[in-house]
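G., the chain you wanted modeled:
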Amino acid sequence: MEFNENQLAAIETTGTDILVSASAGSGKTAVMIERALRLIESGAKIDRMLIVTFTKAAAVEMKARLFSRLCEKSANVNCAEALKKLPQADIGTLHSFCAKLARTYFYSIEIDPAFELLGDDGALMNKCLDEIAEKYAQSERSDLYEIMLARRKDTAFKKAVKKLYLTAVGMPHPKQWLDSCLNFYGDDTEAKKTVGEFLERERKKIAAAARDCAHRTRFAKFERNIAAAESVAAAAESGEESLLVPTPRGRVEPLFIELNEEYKFLRSAVKDFFDKKRAAEELRPSKDALWCGRALKEAAEELSAAYEDEKKKSGVADYNDLEHYAYDVLSSEVGERIRDNYDYIFVHEYQDINPLQDAIIQKLKRKDNLFMVGDLKQSIYAFRGCDPSIFRLKRQLFSDKKSGKNIELNRNYRTEPK
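Predicted structure as tokens:
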């Protein structure tokens, strides 16, 4: 594969942290693998590299790609050695790495290393949530529960408490973060300004993704969806819901299924945005908001306590626990020793990182050994608790060219004629 100038810069630049902002189809994974390969060719050890991503499928693909490239370069003695060590190399999901730290250094944070990992269905957490909802419905705090009832269902109450809890556990210090949330409720003007700024950031994010989708829909000549995709982009860019047109009906050819799913997701995201915008315009006075915020915080804390108790009884841990275990291990006396194990750190799909995960990476990195790659527009498909502002702030920090280097990959090879 021939690399363009910006891709080569991402592959060959050394001596500084690097953030690669890559558009869809720009070859970001190929670039990251090529960077690792060339470092290995020049003498870097694969067992002193950490390469992480956020899904098992992406991890498998990265390892397979590196295996393929190492095979091609196996005449190089360093690549031949790396091939032997590849099965044990730290190339995988961030959660698998966190689990490895927890089970290896359990003694430093006093946990039982024999914990079992909970699945993704959330059944145990939902059981605790159901019990809390029932308790709130029958207690002196039933006002909050009743306010959030809709059509005699408590879905809104449960959803709000669960979202607040999940956001909190995605922070390095959940309790302190929950306490700080109440500082938001000062006066109505400040509250509305903050909500307005948040919604504007969300609108711009959706607009950028929708415009990209509309461009690719038009380029691919997916005639059925062109007008609808354009309407989603126009509505997001202007903030005018009336510009949305109905979703076209009829069969979608296999070639366009992925584009159609992306369009439907973005249209739903735009509709959700306008729902949030209407809700923000009806913000209640601060006194009521403070009362409601405090009650939700207490409910989230109760969920946390009940869920932790159930997990301890069952000897299990969830993915959030893995992250906190890893953060605590790296904050302990063994942290420096672990950090010294890695000469190079790679983070794939950096736009999907949350504050706690980023804190883990910051504890692992040294001054100039971090390589991050991601597509900010794709953060609209956000992993639970991911915070795209981390990516934006990193890019802003690196703009001085002293803290690190920004590299843009904008050329979309998927849409270019063969």
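DSSP finds 18 helices and eight strands in the chain.

Shout if anything looks off.
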